[in-house]
Amino acid sequence: MTSGLDWFKSSFSDGNEGSCVEVAFLPTDGVALRDTKDRTRAVQRHTTAAWAAFLTATRAGEFDRR
Fold this sequence. Notes:
By secondary structure, the chain is an alpha+beta fold. The protein has one helix at residues 48-59; strands at 8-9, 21-25, 31-35, 44-46. The protein is built from one helix and four strands.
């Protein structure tokens, strides 16, 4: 199901191929996430609503290290 998807990295990625998460929009509702360090691991799938909530929380700094 994940073959043929258009994977991309965050614009905040440091450019290091080994420390990123890639995202792809699914043809149906949702997004897929994979770890660039080990692409053989299972891809995570999340609904569009869950992804939007995650992005909102990230932008608000809810996951910033203190």
